[in-house]
Design brief:
Elements lengths: L1 E3 L3 E4 L2 E4 L3 E4 H4 E5 L8 H4 L5 E4 L1 H5 L6 E2 L5 E2 L1 H6 L10 E5 L3 E7 L4 E2 L3 E6 L7 H10 L1 H6 L11 H6 L1 E4 L2 H42 L6 E4 L2 E4 L3 E4 H4 E4 L12 E8 L8 E2 L4 E3 L1 H5 L11 E4 L10 E4 L4 E2 L3 E6 L5 H10 L1 H5 L12 H5 L2 E4 L2 H41 L2 E3 L3
Parallel strand pairs: 6-11, 7-10, 18-23, 19-22
Antiparallel strand pairs: 1-26, 2-3, 4-13, 5-12, 6-8, 9-10, 9-12, 14-15, 16-25, 17-24, 18-20, 21-22, 21-24
């Protein structure tokens, strides 16, 4: 099915097989720019819309799927007429050309799109396999970004996109390459679906187990909601020893690069931490507020404006932390993995406790005051055991997805460059 190419020619975009040609995008596609109808006239242009309409934000949610139909919103036929909008037919490519540049998909239904996208309609459908150019443009994301311009945000103009050079194998070979790559994509998509299903299962089980427990029939109302009658309400400050860390001066090179793992808040992401991006020397530790906490401690991010603030993790190694982290250690009645899952389940509520006018953050006082349900230690262990088994499955599936995606990238490099060819009749 495959063979290694040996006969190449030098072109403006590098070496390609002698049997291939190089063309400009405008030779293969009619390129159109989108727009956004006035949002002030919702009744005329947006309410009860029937026409698909896409934005880069919609494309970002495709989770790597080749095909897309429409986005969250639809527009009316009047909007299409008043704005003379281009409607790309099924089989056209949609490319995001601003904020950001490089999302690409094939339309499974006709659609309009906003000014952050360009539509590429094949000039001759018999000459172009849209899915081939989906993969090709996807592989050239960095090049497309380099061709973009703008101070506030980069944008790839219609004129520049039309001038982009692309390879042109014969249509049969285009389809053959797509057949191979789509098989790998199918494997990635199936793994993604398994991951999504398992994440939903975990979310549901966390909510059930952390509020209802295992096998309980009688419940009581408390200040944190209804919990099993046998459970208690506890304060983090009563049940845990709390600490934080620090950062040595960056101006002294002798403080970093040692043997002491050092965790920053950006590395805290609901997992067992077994390695860190940076490490400290003994000298760095002595000349900062950092201290080493033992494996098994729970670490929580106090700062971080994205989704970082409020996340937690468990040390799988002895490690120090920076000042943007809180470290929790059990005084005896709390099973740390149980508290780890309770904090996960309470993520949104805890983030909403953040304080600060310019930049909202958590602090040690907020963490100390957190109240949580405290089952008997054996039940905490059972609950954590059930949830950790799901986490292990998620880890296996995510690793498999990552490996398959690496295989896909390798195949794309070989097949889309012609280094390896697909045999076609």
């Amino acid at each position: 099915m495959f063979y290694r190419e040996t006969a190449f020619q030098e072109t403006a975009i590098g070496r390609v097989p002698k049997e291939w040609t190089v063309k400009h995008v405008r030779e293969l596609f009619q390129v159109e720019t989108g727009t956004t109808p006035s949002t002030a006239r919702k009744v005329d242009y947006w309410e009860n819309g029937t026409v698909n309409w896409l934005t880069p934000a919609d494309m970002s949610k495709s989770n790597g799927a080749i095909y897309i139909s429409g986005g969250e919103k639809r527009i009316t036929e009047k909007a299409v007429r008043d704005y003379n909008l281009a409607i790309m037919p099924k089989g056209s490519l949609i490319l995001s050309t601003r904020a950001p540049v490089g999302y690409v998909a094939v339309l499974s239904e006709e659609s309009a799109f906003n000014q952050g996208c360009k539509g590429l309609m094949p000039r001759k459908s018999e000459d172009v396999c849209p899915e081939f150019y989906y993969y090709y443009l996807l592989s050239k994301k960095q090049i497309l970004n380099n061709l973009s311009s703008g101070s506030t945000f980069k944008e790839l103009s219609k004129e520049m996109l039309e001038k982009v050079r692309v390879v042109y194998p014969k249509p049969k070979e285009q389809h053959g390459i797509v057949e191979v790559l789509s098989c790998v994509d199918l494997a990635v998509q199936k793994t993604f679906e398994v991951i999504a299903k398992t994440e939903r299962l975990k979310k549901g089980l966390m909510q059930q187990l952390l509020t209802k427990g295992i096998g309980h029939k009688e419940y009581k109302d408390t200040e944190i909601g209804q919990i099993p009658k046998e459970w208690q309400v506890a304060d983090v400050d009563e049940e845990c020893m709390l600490g934080t860390g620090g950062t040595p001066s960056r101006t002294n090179p002798h403080y970093f690069g040692g043997r002491i793992p050092w965790v920053k808040s950006t590395e805290v992401n609901y997992e067992i931490i077994t390695r860190t991006e940076e490490s400290l020397t003994e000298l760095g530790l002595e000349n900062s507020n950092a201290k080493v906490y033992p494996s098994g401690s729970l670490v929580m991010a106090l700062y971080g404006q994205g989704v970082t603030r409020g996340k937690c993790a468990i040390f799988g190694i002895d490690a120090a932390v920076n000042q943007a982290c809180a470290v929790l250690q059990s005084k005896g009645r709390v099973h740390i993995p149980y508290l780890f899952y309770w904090l996960q389940n309470s993520y949104t509520k805890i983030r909403n406790l953040s304080q600060g006018a310019n930049q909202a953050n958590l602090n040690m006082g907020i963490i100390r005051s957190l109240k949580f349900p405290l089952p008997p230690i054996y039940e905490q262990q059972e609950i954590a055991g059930v949830l950790s088994s799901i986490d292990r499955k998620l880890s296996i599936e995510r690793d498999g997805k990552t490996k398959t995606e690496r295989i896909k990238l390798g195949l794309m490099d070989l097949l889309l460059s012609g280094k390896v060819r697909v045999k076609v009749d």
